[in-house]
Design brief:
The chain has helices at about 10-25, 75-80, 110-120, 135-145, 170-180, 185-195, 200-210, 220-230, 235-245, 255-265, 280-285, 285-290, 305, 310-324; strands spanning about 35-40, 45-50, 60, 85-90, 130-135, 155, 265-270, 295-300. With about 325 residues, the chain is of the alpha/beta class. The chain has an 8-stranded mixed β-sheet with strand order 1-2-4-3-5-6-7-8, with helices on both faces. The longest helix is centred in the N-terminal third of the chain and has 17 residues, at about 10-25. The chain starts with 8 loop residues before the first helix and ends with a helix. The structure holds 2-acetamido-2-deoxy-beta-D-glucopyranose (5 copies). One of its GO terms (molecular function) is epoxide hydrolase activity. This is AB hydrolase-1 domain-containing protein.
Length: about 325
């Protein structure tokens, strides 16, 4: 371990803790979690990572664009060591989930939510805490509208439910996709996204932009995201379809917010405050509808588990302990 890495005591504790976790609870495979897939009724083979006692409270980790359950690789063992049952699926179009060509799957947030719901049913998970990052936000909140009785609490990490959460500089190229009404306009809007956001440089910038600790980023995180987009025929189109369909979440915001006011769920919004994609006013907005919402802004960017794992684990474990 490099000198200077342990900048404070809590990090040291976490480091020791992770070491103990790894040395005592590593399954035979060598990973601090299991990997596998379930075949959904429609034939999708949904890949997921899972750890912790199955009788513990379930945390459903919902990843962001352009990543997968891989973004939770270091977080999962920490939660599992505290007795939580953790599951992290890869959505269709991401990570190692396999979608049969014959299915002609429509890549939309409604469909991704339906696939996550089918995954929960296959795993017989009826109560859970969604931990939502980025794309995980609309998926978790849609699930909550569909099965409110299953929701134990929410954790939002730059996972948005308010108009004011959209970053002013990041979204205009995507708004152009939303506004396109002809195939020519759509192509004209898609090309620059294909040439920027979906390149290695664009994906890397999702990790580095706003990060106070870019030196902590493991290059394999963005390289894996990039490889999975670049190496799989048609995946760029999938990503553009989902960036386009993100539009479909906005008309649901009033329903999400009415549900928050009605149900008053426990909610922790711990957001990277330098994220340019989903910005702090979106985190603060939860307080308008959920009286006891806890909002914490962290000196980090979009992928804060990569750079602020110990801090985030501390916040999440404290929140869960007092909320459940
Ligand atoms: C899914 O799991 C089965 C074993 O249950 C395995 O044979 C198969 O290779 C896995 N598929 C993927 C895509 O990981
Ligand atoms: C889960 O099961 C284990 C082993 O049977 C038991 O020791 C533990 O207390 C259980 N935990 C909960 C939260 O029920
Ligand atoms: C696949 O779905 C698209 C859009 O839903 C539709 O236009 C197309 O005809 C479908 N293709 C097949 C082979 O079913
Ligand atoms: C998209 O359309 C909206 C509403 O018509 C407009 O306010 C906005 O400026 C447009 N944005 C882009 C990037 O085309
Ligand atoms: C996106 O970029 C790739 C690689 O540069 C290219 O092969 C593909 O045709 C582009 N797709 C669109 C829709 O522009």
């Amino acid at each position: 371990m490099a000198k200077g890495m342990l900048s404070n005591f809590s990090q040291l504790v976490l480091c020791l803790f992770s070491f103990l976790t790894l040395s005592h609870q590593t399954p035979a495979g060598g990973l601090p979690y299991t990997v596998g897939n379930v075949t959904l009724p429609n034939g999708i083979q949904m890949f997921y990572r899972e750890a912790g006692p199955t009788n513990g409270t379930t945390l459903l980790l919902l990843h962001g664009f352009p990543s997968s359950s891989h973004q939770f690789r270091n977080f999962i063992p920490i939660l599992a060591a505290r007795g939580y049952h953790v599951v992290a699926p890869d959505y269709p179009g991401f990570g190692f989930t396999v979608v049969p060509e014959s299915l002609n799957y429509t890549y939309s947030f409604a469909a991704l939510t339906q696939s996550v719901a089918a995954f929960l049913d296959a795993k017989d998970i009826t109560a859970f805490v969604p931990y939502m990052h980025d794309y995980g936000g609309p998926i978790g909140f849609r699930l909550a509208l569909q099965r409110p009785q299953s929701i134990l609490a929410f954790i939002s990490q730059n996972a948005n439910a308010y108009i004011e959460g959209f970053g002013a500089t990041f979204w205009p190229p995507i708004f152009s996709l939303w506004n396109a009404t002809t195939p020519a306009q759509f192509q004209a809007a898609a090309a620059p996204i294909n040439d920027t956001a979906l390149t290695l440089a664009g994906i890397k910038s999702q990790y580095t932009t706003g990060s106070a600790r870019p030196e902590r980023l493991e290059p394999e995180s963005y390289w894996l995201d990039y490889a999975l987009i670049d190496e799989q025929a048609g995946n760029r189109d999938v990503q553009i379809a989902l960036l386009t369909d993100y539009r479909s979440n906005v008309p649901l915001y009033p329903a999400f917010q009415a549900y928050f006011r009605r149900a008053q769920p426990k909610l922790l919004a711990a957001w990277g405050k330098n994220d340019i994609i989903f910005v702090p006013p979106g985190a603060e907005a939860f307080k308008r509808d959920i009286l006891n919402a806890e909002v914490v802004l962290i000196d980090a960017g979009h992928f804060l588990l990569e750079t602020n794992l110990g801090q985030m684990a501390g916040l999440v474990l404290d929140f869960l302990k007092k909320s459940l």
